Amino acid sequence: MKCLAPVDEDSQMPDTKIVVPDTNSQSPFISVLVPAFNEAAELPRMLTSVQEAFAAIGRTDFEVVVCDNNSSDATADIASAQGARVVFETHNQIARARNAAAKAARGEWFIFIDADSVLSPELLTATLSDIQSGKSLGGGARVAFDRDSIPLYIRAGLASWNSLSRSLRWAAGAYIYCSRPAFESTGGFDERVYASEEIGFSRKLKRLARKERKQFHILQKTPILTSARKADQFTFGQTVLQVLRCAWPGSLRRRDRCGFWYRRGPAKQFRNFS
Fold it and tell me: SS3 for the chain, per residue?
């Protein structure tokens, strides 16, 4: 494995070209891990962004592992065609999919990224600088939507999340990174819950960071861009209902109470959302 020096976040990026992961390497430095359930529409953009981001900073010491979480579309075929290794988790649960991808990973560091997100060279650069500082065992990033035409209540919700994320150091599920030893020491994502597993994982990583005198923080200058598709999929009333439902004790342990994260399609399909 060839380990390059950190890239200055303010330095000029070289011309971008597509690279594919070094699949011959037995020990890539970074494993990019993607949980994917019926993500044929979003996955190509995300995988391309990962390839372009690594190419922009001149690195090939990475792999991409996509966990097909019981999809009924072409998710697995698309991932394989774009150079990712594909593993399968038949139980439809985000935490299990993340853990299955990590179990198959070969890297020294893990980057968990959602299939509807976009990795920029700037965020990758900031992440690698943090990793190679030797002071960190993981972190996350501020979240931004990939378009401006967002309803006000969605924008308000995102602003509230980013404020909580910054102050409490909770990483959004769209982008979390950690070292392999940190993942293994914490036991990974909690498979008892069907949503908000990233919050529990962040808490475990923070406790480990304090114990090991390391850092776990949320990158603020370089956000992860993620899809605003839930604004199209769910109405205001459905969104409020899901937030209230998640606050009820035990709801996160029932997939039927977490449909907000497991359903695809426009809001008109979910008029009886429950």
Answer: CCCCCCCCCCCCCCCCCCCCCCCCCCCCCEEEEEEECCCCCCHHHHHHHHHHHHHHCCCCCEEEEEEECCCCCCHHHHHHHCCCEEEECCCCCHHHHHHHHHHHCCCCEEEEECCCEECCHHHHHHHHHHHHCCCEEEEEEEEEECCCCCCHHHHHHHHHHHHHHHHHCCCCCCEEEEEHHHHHHHCCCCCCCCCCHHHHHHHHHHHHHHHHCCEEEEEEEEEEEECCHHHHHCCHHHHHHHHHHHHCCCHHHCHHHCHHHCCCCCHHHHCCCC
- Higher-pLDDT residue of 208 and 196 is 208
pLDDT band with cut points at 50, 70 and 90 for residue 261: low
Number of C-beta neighbours around residue 156 at 10 A: 11
Please tell me the predicted confidence (pLDDT) of residue 16. Answer: 35
Q: In one letter, which amino acid is 246?
A: C
How many CA atoms lie less than 13 Å away from 54 in the CB half-sphere?
23
The pLDDT of residue 26 is above 90: no
Residue 153 has a pLDDT of 85
Task: Write the single-letter amino acid at 16.
Answer: T
Rg (CA), the chain: 18
Tell me the average pLDDT across 119-139: 97
Position 133 pLDDT exceeds 60: yes
**Whole-number pLDDT of residue 18:** 40
Q: Are 33 and 68 in contact (CB under 8 A)?
A: no
DSSP β-bridge partners for residue 136:
215
Please report the domains of the chain, with CATH numbers, ordered by start residue: 30-228 (3.90.550.10)
